[in-house]
Design brief:
Blueprint (H helix, E strand, L loop, with lengths): L1 H17 L1 H16 L10 H15 L1 H4 L3 H17 L3 H13 L2 H30 L12 H11 L1
Helix pairs in contact: 1-2, 2-3, 2-5, 3-6, 5-6, 5-7, 6-7
Length: 157
Amino acid sequence: MDGAFLLWDELLVRLSNDMPRFLRLLVLRLVDLMTAPSPLETETDPFKEAAYFWLRHICMDPKWTSDALNSVQKRHVAVLQSCFETPTFWSLRLAQDVIDAAAPGVKADWEPVLQACIAEDDSVATDDSSANDQDVRMEDPSEPDAGTADAAAKDSQ
């Protein structure tokens, strides 16, 4: 991604400085791309990964964070709000990176939200995996005692 940053940074930073709405819209669209449903596996979707790296770059690179500290904190808060609206693998990863780099006040406010989302995500993953680990036997309801016939056949072997 360093090549993309090298090619596009100067233009995008200039547009952001000249048109403040541009940066807000760019960030929102990148978050939308990062959190949108995809036919690909979320963790390996190259478009989501690229959006994550661009957002991380915009939130942390000195070229993008040289404006007033208050403005950077507002950007961090806006990104965090967007990340937590639709928590996904990439949005939670970005939220963690932004929180780690944020001012202490922002960090104190948003760290508990991140931990709650991670805990919720883990519990959903645990619930899903436990359902998949069970041996599910499909029986034909039209056959009486299909389950006992299977058990008898296994016992006789």
